[in-house]
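Provenance

Sequences were taken from public entries as deposited. Structures were produced by running a predictor on each sequence independently, with no templates supplied. The record for HAD-superfamily phosphatase from Cutaneotrichosporon cavernicola is shown for reference.
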Amino acid sequence: MRALPAPLIYLQGLLRPALLRPDLRVPSIANVDWSGLGAAGYNAVVVDKDNCVTKPHSDALFPPYTQAWANLKAAFPGRVLMVSNSAGSSKDRGGIGAEALSMSLHVPVLAHRQPKPACAADIIAYFAGRLGRPMLTRDKVPEIHPEVEEEAAERELLQKWRWSVEEGPLAGRPLLGTLEERMVAAQYRVAPPGSEGPATDAAMKTQSRAEMQNQSPKETKLETEEPLRVLVVGDRQFTDVLLARRLEMYGVKASAILTTDLPQPADVRLLRKLENYLAPGDTEQAARLESFVRIDPPPPPSLRPTGLERLNPIAQARSAWAEWTADTPEVQLDPRSGTWKPKPLFVASVRGLSAVLHVLGIYARRGGAWAWVHIRRGAEKGWNATKAKAGEMRAEYHARKEAARMDAEARADAATIASSDVKVTPKAALEGENARIQPAQ
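Predicted structure for HAD-superfamily phosphatase:
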């Protein structure tokens, strides 16, 4: 089948919106039971990059999906392929972006010239020879059992015929050469003409087994080849879901899983509304795949302040810093430019400075507490001494005041006595004068 260019596939999706319907809608990759899907027969996973496992224009894994990404790689070891329209595409010159993404997520990144969904043939070519021997499940036993019994009966019948006819007493071993040639060969103990050596039973049996193996190609195919059954995971219907439909046109069993909770919701919001308007529902396969959706997944941690903390500018600044540094990788050389990445270096410097200031703050608090204890003790001693001095001064003041009062009272008493003596003398003189005048009359 010839690969169609991506614009024609987009046009096909507009004309047939049913192709845009995913097989399963989930909030994120953390809501999928990957081990259950592996046990159900799926053997490969194709994952989108931007807004599915990472933020747009970032190679680091979105932190809330760390455990889910580990579960996905553990359920499909060596069979997880990252397909992105940025890293590994024709826009990625030299494959530097694909190499950086592969180093960050520890999975291979597909190098493709045609953007999604026109790279279905490249995906099939990548997984060719990588799936290994098939795993026999219980549902395949009724299908394979009659074929295996028939081939075993044919092989047993052929073996009996060779042992009883070709190598047995009915026909004997094949004789080579004429009678004279065999007589000469027996006399000189050499091989007859036309034969390189005596045909032994082991050689005949080996040849028979080789012929029997060549006559049963179906069994060899069942033991060595496994059909591709792939899960296409992404956040876009025009790219990821259509990619699953293109894989089905190549005869591959593919199921599309659409993630709805995006690390950056504002990314191409208008196109997402158009996709949901054209294909709002799911396919009939969604009822079968709903059993692999986790009912109560752990909610991703929220980095934004809630409640009254939203009014606190310090809390808002902390949440903005935590959200900006959440997907920052470790300090490493940028493979694209060969220099240090500025953002990880800046974040590491700020975090190191914060750690140093934190340690200094701890020792400053301890030193402040020690100084406060000693200052408080000195202040208490000074205050007690001041109170004692003030008590002494107050007692001395009251003593002086009492002495002055007593002195004033003594002076007042003396003055009162003196004034009373002065008043008694004129009165006595007046009374004596009156007494002298009365007898004369």
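The beta strands are 24-26, 44-47, 80-82, 229-234, 253-259.
Residues 6-132+226-292 form a domain with the Rossmann fold fold (CATH 3.40.50.1000).
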